[in-house]
Write the structure tokens for this entry.
Amino acid sequence: MSATALSELVTDGFGLDHLPYGSVSDGDGAPHLAVRIGDHAVLVRDLLDSEDPAELRDAADAPNLDRLLAAGEDAWTALRALLRDRVAHRSAPARAITDVVLHMPFTVADYVDFYASEHHASNVGKLFRPGQPALLPNWKHLPVGYHGRAGTIGIGSEIARPHGLRPEPDGVPSFGPSRRLDIELEVGFVLGGSAPEGRLNLDEAAGHVFGVVLMNDWSARDIQAYEYVPLGPNLGKSFATSIAPWITPLQALEAARVAPPSRDTPLSSYLDDEASAPWGLDLLLEVELNGEVVARPPFSSTYWTAPQMIAHMTVNGASLRPGDFIAGGTVSGPERGQRGSFLELSWGGEEPLRLADGSTRTFLEDGDRVVLRGVAVADGESHIRLAECDGRIIASA
Amino acid sequence: MSATALSELVTDGFGLDHLPYGSVSDGDGAPHLAVRIGDHAVLVRDLLDSEDPAELRDAADAPNLDRLLAAGEDAWTALRALLRDRVAHRSAPARAITDVVLHMPFTVADYVDFYASEHHASNVGKLFRPGQPALLPNWKHLPVGYHGRAGTIGIGSEIARPHGLRPEPDGVPSFGPSRRLDIELEVGFVLGGSAPEGRLNLDEAAGHVFGVVLMNDWSARDIQAYEYVPLGPNLGKSFATSIAPWITPLQALEAARVAPPSRDTPLSSYLDDEASAPWGLDLLLEVELNGEVVARPPFSSTYWTAPQMIAHMTVNGASLRPGDFIAGGTVSGPERGQRGSFLELSWGGEEPLRLADGSTRTFLEDGDRVVLRGVAVADGESHIRLAECDGRIIASA
């Protein structure tokens, strides 16, 4: 493969200021860590020189992000500075993304999904506990979350409709394919660095966030509804969680930082972010169903920030590991068109969504394709386009 | 180190019919996979010959069980047969367990904790939902479970009392050390083998169970009570989960197989074990607090079996990985002295346990030491002693 002047590959949203990381191979060979420039992938090791620091060369000469995640924040900064310089000024072999095989960009250690959107939590409360307060008493005091299945997080785009036990009016559950298969549009955070044992304060927590990725937390609402008391979601979620194949470095999103929503309930000191640098992110997100945009949730409306989630996760002394992955749960804004799940968009299935082709939708049908998109907004303009998270439902026996 | 005739090392409970696996080092050097004979550790690689199958030599020449877990059931059987023969007839270097450093015996992939004891679930129901049916409607239709934190499972014996948000009468939680720190006596199952995608039936599921280990699912009841709606336990559990450092091969427990309790509710076909080989285990367990036995829970009273939990985990298409770890939740029998948690033993703290030294106990105090023990019973005799799970509570700042 001949070398290409890398600066010429830049496209809108995937330029020098972005450089997301992924894992690519030619199908037969071993996967390698790569950066994306426009619609091309360039191996990170092809951009480093023998006189570059050994730690960075070691992290670059890897199948995926795992070594870089372990190396910690200083290495993330150093490698990014170096890549930006080289991409601006050098040529290197580049392959069209459509010509490579994409692999999972990192090995997931533990995965914790939170419930950080006030509008989402309120919608769910109204749907399932009508006549009661929309938020449970603990919701504004801590970021509620649960551990999900790390082993079924992937970048694959075919999602088999799960089977399981579904509630029935007579109280005896029936076994079969989910009848209420849903999406959850989420923003995931990839963590790294070597954390000391013991709790992290908000500043320390922020230093463990390596990158950001769009995520679809596929959810079988009927299976979930039957199983979830009293220990939370399990089979209704564990069949598959999709992430986009390219991880946006947090440092690419500095200009999109905004203040989170104002806190109307006093927080315990380990969660109190009033004196901290603002850690909301102005990401405009989009849910596309079969080519039609059906929702535009604003991530900036999310109540709990990533550092708050991490400070909470570790306040009991639990350790972090490189590759830990957290997400904030469904992103929903205050408007109907800003809801990040079909549960909310169709109001529990009671108000079917009318699509442009005249059909209606409550939950997902076999063959439905859902693409999640997002752009980061800074100074009124978007220079960063998050990689798409793309999935299609297939029937399963 | 000189070689010892291994058959002379055998003690009651850790003989030729047991041979649990662990990971040991001399502290400075690398850890190695080992078997336990009596109170001694012998490296597995010291028992294999160059003409033994390459797959077994590869699994033996490893720091821990990870490669053997991946190799699958046939390899487990072959290696065990070979080790039994060699231990019976050979000499090899052996080190007293007190002279080696013990390491985590395998890398935990995903960890799922179930709620499989009917007596435990009923006790919890009576405590938290007085006046209502003790079991929730779903309990006898599926094994309820949730994903726990894999990264904080360990063999360490010092457990720092966790801090967190505790419920208060005025509705505003307070931050501080848990006031209701508890144990959960559990039996864990280490899984392995390469599973095809898609659901496993009960027989296939059974073939993925490599071994059994005593486990203490330390639980901060106050933190858990405040956080757990609606997504289940998180910080109340994630600070630490202890397992014993030696994994008993399932094949050592064949003679302890018993039928599980009779099922009074018809089961969906993927969970129906009426025609299956009995998969209960006759394990007599013991909770010792500061040298005094305070409970003797019988594992044979557990309603859901390991194959049922695995068949359930995969019925939605979720894949297994070698190193997946599941447990059945607190083991409690029908009698008061058979309860596997202080929550139950002290009936929610209302009926303090009177100890032999005249003191009382509701939940754990700093300095308390809890040792979990178990023996497998076959034909009225116990030949297998599960390795102890030992932990002590220390104060934390």
Summary: The two ends of chain B are 44 Å apart (CA to CA).
